[in-house]
Amino acid sequence: EFVTLRLENSDGCSGRLQVFYNGMWGSVCSNSMTPKTVSLACKFLGCGDRGTLETHLPYGKISGPAWLDRVECGERNNFFWQCPSTPWNPQSCDDLQDETHITCNGRWPEMPPVPKAACPNTTSCTDREKIRAVGGENGCSGRVEIWHHGSWGTVCDDSWDMQDAEVACRQLGCGPPVSALDEAAFGEGTGPIWLEQVECHGTELSLQDCWAQPGDSGACRHKEDAAVHCSGPVCPSPLPLPSLVLPFLCSCHADLTQDHPAGNRRVSLPVIICIILGALLFLFLALLALQSTRAGYR
Question: Where do the SRCR domain residues begin and end (predicted)?
């Protein structure tokens, strides 16, 4: 079961401690909370090595379960999830004072400044234009890169699976996924790593709609860039084309729209086949129209 921590209602390393479990964020009750527990939570969040349990609470009580209570980390525990606690069952803290609010002694690392632009083409764009697959054959396989804060960046392969690939392929307009690849299967990217620990249900319209950790913790490297291999381009047609012809035309469209360096554009075999099929289809439709016209005159 995927679990992680966050500081809710926080603009840094101070706020309400919450745990993500069973697809939902919930509280951590402060009963029996030890200084060691707070310090391990701060370490996990990348917010230093120590922290304090706050008693003056500026936040209101949240709705939803409290997943954890009586988390008692000891000196022998080196990782937050090793600490003993009560069973992971939906419960509720006794009152607002029982919810855990901490202030850590560190701060999140800042991302290097990048040029700001709303979209890859500096105009309004959809989520589909904020993702690309790099290094594959037709834009439907390759290293997954997303556009964020004015630049292209990669996605870490931690927890990357077929549900995440399902969303990425849908967002790319490339049909169902064939495989979810890791360890920079299509080469290492450059620039920022925008997302870590992506957790999609598979029904989201874009990776931006999935839960994920910001990729600024420094825990991931480009040798862990995530990638996908999708089944192929999906291109709707305004004409009722035969089902056996449409895949060829889609593939042809994908090949024709690939970016190639100037002076190095060669016509590939799939493009030639598509041109021939297109010509034959045009001829077939022309003959069908001519036959219909003759039948009308009779």
Answer: 5-105, 131-231
CATH number for the region 128-230 comes to: 3.10.250.10
Q: Which residues of 209-220 are buried (b: 16+ CB within 10 A; e: fewer)?
A: ebbbbebbbeeb
Regarding pTM above 0.70, the answer is no
As a whole number of angstroms, the distance between CA 73 and CA 181 comes to 36
137-180 pLDDT, tens per residue?
888 999 999 988 778 899 999 889 999 999 999 999 998 999 99
Region for residue 228 given its phi and psi (left: phi exceeds 0; alpha: psi -120 to 50; beta: otherwise): beta
Domain ranges of the chain: 4-104, 128-230
Q: Options 3.40.50.300, 3.30.360.10, 3.10.250.10, 3.40.50.700; which CATH number does 4-104 get?
A: 3.10.250.10
DSSP string, 77-123: --SGGGS--S-S--B--SSGGGB-EEEESS-PPPPPP----SSTTSS
Tokens describing residue 283:
């001829």
Q: Are the CB atoms for 200 and 207 separated by under 8 Å?
A: yes
Distances (CA, A) of 2 to 167, 205, 227, 231, 234: 18, 21, 21, 28, 32
**Do 203 and 125 contact (CB within 8 A), yes or no?**
no
Neighbours of 67 (CB within 10 A): 24
Contact between residue 25 and residue 6 where contact means Cβ atoms under 8 Å apart: yes
- The kind and range of the H/E element at 71 are none
- What DSSP element (H or E) covers 14? strand 14-21
Do the bridges between strand 66-68 and strand 24-28 make them parallel or antiparallel, or are there none, so unpaired? parallel
Whole-angstrom distance, CA of residue 228 vs CA of residue 223: 15
Q: Which two tokens stand for residue 116?
A: 């700001």
Phi and psi at residue 289, in whole multiples of 5°? -65, -40
Predicted pLDDT of residue 29: 85
Q: Do domains 4-104 and 128-230 have the same CATH topology?
A: yes
